[in-house]
Each structure stands twice: as structure tokens, then as C-alpha cells.
């Protein structure tokens, strides 16, 4: 391990590499046209904006994003919202599709392969450290403490870890650690997860965040690529190998989680199911939500469309443009409709006598007159016809829309089109 030799934050000598190729199939039709990192979140953002904003706010100025599955929406968003990096300031932002640069028939075989195929680009920038990130989680984190721990411990790899109840840990990569947080075993989605030292009812789960010294990482990727039995994956191959043959250290998220004065808990969410996605968005409408999007010290950067202000019109009994405990984005027109615990993305229109409750409505959807929506996710651009009622009859909902076990209905335009077919 080469220790850092220059003064100043370690983040300035690091490159963030965001793995954003995942489909996210548990989000059902929300990922029919877009990769999971490109799915909308929080009124203005996309999921990937959180990982990218964490890197930027931490002081990292070299970022690469590896894309693969249905990447057009994601690439367009990155081009629109993240094109402010300047080479003359030693900044860079690279979008790295699976471009078959190693072999003409070679897409990214796994997360490690997605980095391996772009080693030449990484080497051209010469970063001292690599911060490998998943592009599909909602959280706020300063990577500087993790980089400092990596150097101080002389680690080969430092793995970002989340403390979770042991009963919920089997869906993660889980680490067993010693008293000094050195990882002694790494198990991918174990049926019987190991507990933590001193707290056997909680486990350390991998966040999919890894810090390496760049030259060492490249050596390991080349070694892994030469192994015919490898699945080319960090969690399945590279990290377990280093646990056994090197020094792997756990970094606890609580040490670097960014919280404003309004946030009482450590916040990290995988919004990979329709239920989790709906819940995390609707939670933002609370008076004191678990995630503070209003913290100006740690902004979530994104593409900001130029839109007129939101507008609320009509003031008659039963036909009053109103929003209670709701988030309403720019360009929305609430025309005699009533919203309650609802999140509207940019450009949504809700027409007279509509009642919308506990809804997540993606950009440019149009909600017709006399509509009643409860516990729904409405995809981008959907036209909800006049008088449609969703969320009051479970059997009718399940026959027409994607209804989850917890009673959330996902509504897409093809589903609406089938109603009149």
C-alpha cells in the first residue's frame, strides 16, 4: 500500500467509479425503459444523483459512470445534469457504456469486469485512490473519512458497511469482523448471517462501496480476469479473495453519514421494489422526513429543468386547488384538485375534483377530472382518464394494474391503454 504523500483532502486524489448498469427488475414496469439508477426520486432527482452528489460534495472531481442496461435515459440525464466538470481544473466526468472495447462480443460480465474493461481510461487520469460505488441507493455520505481510514489502516480494500438487524441481513453481502473491524469473512446473501462483535442481533451489510489504492485495484482486476472460475464480480469474487489473502477493513456508515440538524437517524435506502420506492418517496412528505432534501450544506445535484412555478387554481367548495403534506415540483398545475401526502414531479397536471392521496406521480403525468387515486405510483407521461378510481377495490386494481402485496398500485400508459381496448 502506497500511503498518501501530498497534503490536503484525500478525495482530491481519488476517482469515483459508479456502477450504474443494473436493470432493477423488482421495480417492474418502472425499469421497462430505463435502468434503475435513472428512475426518478424525490420530486426532481434520479436515484443516481445521490451517489454522484456524495462524490462531488466529498471533494472528488474525477468521476466515471459505467452503464449497460437500457442506458439511453440515464446517459441523457448525465449529459444534461452532470456536464459541468472542466478538464482545465483537473476534473473529468466519463460515461462508460459497455462498448465492447476489450472484445467485440464482450459486454460487462459483472461489477469487477465493468471496471476492468476501462483500466486504460482510469490509468490516463492517474488517481491514487478508487472509490467504487453502486449507483442505485439513496443516502448521503462523505467519502473522505472512509479514504482516511483506508490509509490509516494500510488496508488493501475498505468496504462501506451498514448495520442492519440480523433478521434482515440475508439479502445483502454480510461481513464478519474482528474487534478492530478487520473483515474475517464475506458472505454473499447468507441464510444465517453472522452477528457483530458485542451485538449478535445486528449484522454488517455491504453497501457496495469499496475503496482501493488504484495500482493495487488494477493488479487485482487483472488477476481476477485471468481466473476462469471467476464471475467477474466484486461481491462474489474480488472482495472474498482479499478477505482471505489480503487486508480487508470494514468502514461503518455511521462514521461518514451526512446528517443535517433535522435528521435524527442514519439514512440509507435500497428503493429496489415498488413498495420500497413508494414508501421512500411518500416519506418525504412528512413534517420531519427521515431524509432532509433541504440541507444546503450537502445538496443533491441534478438536472434542473427550466420550468414556471407550480400553480394552484380555483377556489370553490369541492373544487379547490390544494396540497396538504405534499411536495409539488415546478411546472405543476393543481387545477381544482386536492392532494394529500403526495409527491408530484415536474410538470404534472391535476384537474378539477380529483383527489390524490399517498401518490408518487412522475413527470408530465396528467390526472383527469373526478379521478381518485390512493397509494399509487404513476409513471412518466401517463394520462389518467376522467373518473378513474384506483386504491379502493383491491381485486379491480389487481386486474388492471401492477398491485403489490402491500397494496401499492403501479400505473403505466400501456395499462391505461388496455382499459379502453
TrEMBL record:
Domain named Nucleotidyl transferase: residues: 17-285
One annotated GO biological process: glycogen biosynthetic process
Any idea which positions bind alpha-D-glucose 1-phosphate?
Answer: 108, 173, 188-189, 206
Entry's Pfam families?
A: Hexapep_GlmU (PF24894), NTP_transferase (PF00483)
According to its UniProt record, the EC number is 2.7.7.27
Entry-linked InterPro entries: ADP-Glc_PPase (IPR011831), ADP_Glu_pyroP_CS (IPR005836), GlgC_bac (IPR023049), GlmU/GlgC-like_hexapep (IPR056818), NTP_transferase_dom (IPR005835), Nucleotide-diphossugar_trans (IPR029044), Trimer_LpxA-like_sf (IPR011004)
What's this protein's name? Answer: Glucose-1-phosphate adenylyltransferase
Organism expressing this protein natively:
Propylenella binzhouense
Amino acid at each position: 500500500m502506497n500511503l498518501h504523500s501530498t497534503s490536503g483532502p484525500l478525495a482530491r486524489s481519488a476517482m469515483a467509479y459508479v456502477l450504474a448498469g443494473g436493470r432493477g427488475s423488482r421495480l417492474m414496469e418502472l425499469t421497462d425503459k430505463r435502468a434503475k439508477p435513472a428512475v426518478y426520486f424525490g420530486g426532481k432527482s434520479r436515484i443516481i444523483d445521490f451517489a454522484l452528489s456524495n462524490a462531488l460534495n466529498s471533494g472528488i472531481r474525477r468521476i466515471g459512470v459505467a452503464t449497460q442496461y437500457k442506458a439511453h435515459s440515464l446517459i441523457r440525464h448525465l449529459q444534461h445534469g452532470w456536464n459541468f466538470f472542466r478538464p482545465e481544473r483537473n476534473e473529468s466526468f466519463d460515461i462508460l457504456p459497455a462498448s465492447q472495447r476489450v472484445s467485440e462480443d464482450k459486454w460487462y460480465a459483472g461489477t469487477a469486469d465493468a471496471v476492468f474493461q476501462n483500466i486504460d481510461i482510469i490509468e490516463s487520469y492517474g488517481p491514487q485512490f478508487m472509490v467504487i460505488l453502486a449507483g442505485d441507493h439513496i443516502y448521503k455520505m462523505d467519502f473522505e473519512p472512509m479514504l482516511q481510514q483506508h490509509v490509516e489502516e494500510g488496508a488493501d480494500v475498505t468496504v462501506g458497511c451498514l448495520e442492519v438487524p440480523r433478521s434482515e441481513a440475508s439479502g445483502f453481502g454480510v461481513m464478519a469482523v474482528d474487534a478492530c473491524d478487520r473483515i474475517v469473512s464475506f458472505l454473499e446473501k447468507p441464510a444465517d448471517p453472522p452477528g457483530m462483535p458485542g451485538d449478535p442481533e445486528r449484522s454488517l451489510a455491504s453497501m457496495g462501496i469499496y475503496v482501493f489504492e488504484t495500482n493495487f485495484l488494477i493488479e487485482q482486476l487483472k488477476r481476477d480476469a485471468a481466473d476462469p472460475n471467476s464471475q467477474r464480480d466484486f461481491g462474489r469474487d474480488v472482495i472474498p479473495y482479499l478477505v482471505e489473502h489480503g487486508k480487508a477493513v470494514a468502514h461503518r456508515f455511521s462514521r461518514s453519514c451526512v446528517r443535517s440538524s433535522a435528521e435524527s437517524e442514519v439514512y440509507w435506502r435500497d428503493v429496489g421494489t415498488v413498495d420500497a420506492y413508494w414508501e421512500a418517496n411518500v416519506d418525504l412528505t412528512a413534517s420531519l422526513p427521515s431524509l432532509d432534501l433541504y440541507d444546503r450544506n450537502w445538496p443533491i445535484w441534478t438536472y434542473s429543468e427550466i420550468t414556471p412555478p407550480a400553480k394552484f387554481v380555483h377556489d370553490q367548495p369541492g373544487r379547490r386547488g390544494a396540497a396538504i403534506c405534499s411536495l409539488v415540483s415546478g411546472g405543476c398545475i393543481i387545477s381544482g384538485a386536492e392532494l394529500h401526502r403526495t409527491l408530484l414531479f415536474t410538470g404534472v397536471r391535476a384537474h378539477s375534483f380529483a383527489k390524490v392521496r399517498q401518490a408518487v406521480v412522475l413527470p408530465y403525468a396528467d390526472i383527469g377530472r373526478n379521478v381518485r387515486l390512493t397509494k399509487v405510483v404513476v409513471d412518466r407521461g401517463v394520462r389518467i382518464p376522467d373518473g378513474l378510481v384506483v386504491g379502493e377495490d383491491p381485486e379491480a386494481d389487481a386486474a388492471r394494474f401492477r398491485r403489490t402485496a402491500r397494496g401499492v398500485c403501479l400505473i403505466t400508459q400501456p395499462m391505461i391503454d388496455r382499459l379502453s381496448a
